[in-house]
Each structure stands twice: as C-alpha cells, then as structure tokens.
Amino acid sequence: NGLEQTKNVSWLVAINGTSCQGINQSYSGSYWRIYCRAPALEDGGVYNLSLKVNYTSLGIVFNATETNAIMYKDLTAPVLVNVTSEQTIPGQNVTLSVKVTDNVPVAFVWANVTYPDKNSSIFFLRLTSGNHYETNFSDTSQTGDYDFVVWANDTSGLKNSTAGFFGIYSYSLL
User: DSSP per residue over 35-74, as a string?
Assistant: First the structure.
C-alpha cells in the first residue's frame, strides 16, 4: 500500500551465526538503524552478517545475509615459539629458525643479531614451510656469544619478539 511500516517490527541480528544481544532499532525517514552488542568472536576475523526482520502485524518476514560484512579488529600479536640456533666454530654457518603463529597473516619476521664486538645487523627470515621461518647466518668470524632478538610483525601491525643467543667458539684438543 506504499505506507512505511515502522510499528510492530522485530529484528534478529547475527554475526557468523551467533546472535547479537541488546538489539535496539530506530527508523529515520528512509532507513533503519540497528544497534546491538556484538558477540564475542575471535579477533582479526571477517564474518557474515545476517538480519531477519519480522513485520508482525503484516505477517511478513525478510531475511538477508551479507558475506564478509563484519571485521573484528585484530588484537592478538604474533606468537614466536621454538626459536633455534646452534653453536659452531668460526667460519661455519648458523641457521636461525623460529615458528610464528598468529590469527591473521604474518607480514615479516626479522632478527637483530648483536656480534661479540657489540655491533649489530638485521636479517630477514624467510618463510620455509607452514609457519616456520629461518635465515642462514654466515658472518661468524668473531668468537664469542651472538645475542639476537627475533621479531614478527603481522598484517595488522602488531608485533612480538623473543631473545636468544648462539656461540661461536674455537676448540682445541689437548
């Protein structure tokens, strides 16, 4: 009949199939504003939005789903585990490796290596498989401890780090 139906209207809102709570709605001339408390879902995720409106006095129900309509902000920094390196002798390579997990893609992983003489260099670790990153460190001419900090940065700009060391020592048989 061309009339706007703004009374006897109820809404159901769901994000990724989980109902929103505390729904409040208002009509403003030509559109509805729907407010609700979003459900607790994993941060960093992209979710579908489903709406169901019931015009109770008319007996009409409309359903709509918008795919990937809701994005929860990423609050979780990458997690670095299984950082490994080995001791060796001067002139031999050291493989520095780490497993990085996150709920969003990892953008890059790097290590700041401090030499025994206290100078430092940055090395980017390459993705070798799954969530395993490594670099082949070949500048092992100095003897002593090489301290390092491995950093991971995700695509949301969150980062995390862990520290370790490896030793380069000359051995002699007595």
Answer: EEE-----TT-EEEEEEEEEETTTTEEEEEEEEEEEEPPP
Per residue in 92-123, pLDDT tens?
A: 999 999 999 999 999 999 999 999 999 999 99
**DSSP-assigned letters across all residues of 76-115:** ---EEEEEE---B-TT--EEEEEEEE-SS-EEEEEEEEE-
Query: What sign does the dihedral 130-132-133-137 (CA atoms) show?
Result: negative
Query: Other CB atoms closer than 10 Å to residue 14's CB: what's the count?
Result: 17
Euclidean distance between CA atoms 35 and 111, whole angstroms = 45
What does the DSSP 8-state code read for residue 156? T
In the structure encoding, which two tokens stand for residue 111, read together? 């290590």
Cα 139 to Cα 74: distance, rounded to the nearest angstrom: 37
The list of the chain residues with pLDDT below 70 reads 1-4, 172-174
Question: pTM, whole model, 2 decimals?
Answer: 0.78
